[in-house]
Write a structure and sequence with these properties.
alpha/beta
Length: about 325
Amino acid sequence: MTMQGPAAAGHSVAASPDQLPLVVTAISHKFGALAALDNVSLQVAAGEVVSLLGPNGAGKTTLIRTIAGRLAPDHGTVRVLGDNPARSRKARGRIGLVPQNLALYDTLTARENLEIFGGLFGLSPAAARIRAGTLLAQTGLGEKASEPVQRLSGGMRRRLNIAAAVMHEPAVLLLDEPSVGVDIQALDGVIALIRQLRGAGYAIVLTTHDMALAEAVSDRIVLLKAGRVIIDGSLPALKERAFGTGQLVIAAFAAPVAGTPARAALASLGLQARDDNTVWRGSTGATPGLVNRLLAVEGVPPLRQLTVADPDLAETYVA
C-alpha cells in the first residue's frame, strides 16, 4: 500500500530554490560564545532522505530546531518551499516534526491521538477521522487503533508518532532520533515506514546515532562537527572517500603483534593496529591472496580470523 503524501519529485536538487521543499543557506547560530551552527548549508528535494550524523554537541538538534522555525538563525536563511519558517506560519504548516521524546497522549487510543493532532493541524473532524484511518492502515497499526498508547510496543509508538507528524501531509518531515528505544526487530518497521514516506514524496531530514537506520534509508549523509558541515554526500561517495575502491579487511591474531618488522609488514598491506595490537584493520584493493601474504609475514602470531567485506556506514563514519 502506498503512503499518501506530497507528490514525489525524485532526488535531484537542481530545481529553483523556491521550488525545493527545503533550502538552508549559510546559517549560523550562537548560544553565548558557543557557535552551535557555523555557516551551515543544506538542500533537500522531494522524495529524498538526508541523515545528519555527528557526535553529541555537533549541532544536529539545533539545526532541526532552526529548520522547524523554533530558532531564528543569527545569520543565513531557511526556506521551506520559498518561505521562512521562523516568520511564516504557512511555512511552519508545511513541516512535520517528530521529536526524540515521544509526543503522544498515553491514555488515549492510537486513533484518538491521530485525530487530535489532525485537529491541531487544522483538519476538520471528518477529515481527521479519514486521514487517521488511512495512516493507521499504512503504518500497520490498524488492528491497534483502539488500543491506548501506553499498551503499544516501543516500535508501534514510534510509528504512531511519525504518523501524527504527517497527518497534515507536510512537505518536509524532520525526525529527531526516530529509533530511540526501538529494538532490532521493531527497527525494521521504522525503516519500512521512512521508505514509504520517501516514496510518497516527503523531503526527510533525520538525526540519528543508529548507523543501521541511516544506511538503510539515506540518500545522502551530512556529517556535522562543532557546528560545521564537514561531509555531504551519498553513502557510496563517502565509502570511496574513506576507503577508496578497496574493501575493509580485519585481521585478528591469537596474540598481540610484537616487533617493529612485523608491524611494518602489516602496515605495508594497508592494515593498522587497534586496541592491543591483536586486531589489525584497514582497506586494501588487493584482497586475493591476502591470507597467504599475511601468513608469510614473519614474527606474527597465528591468524585467528580474517574478515574481508565492503565497509558499512559505521566503518565509514569511524574512518
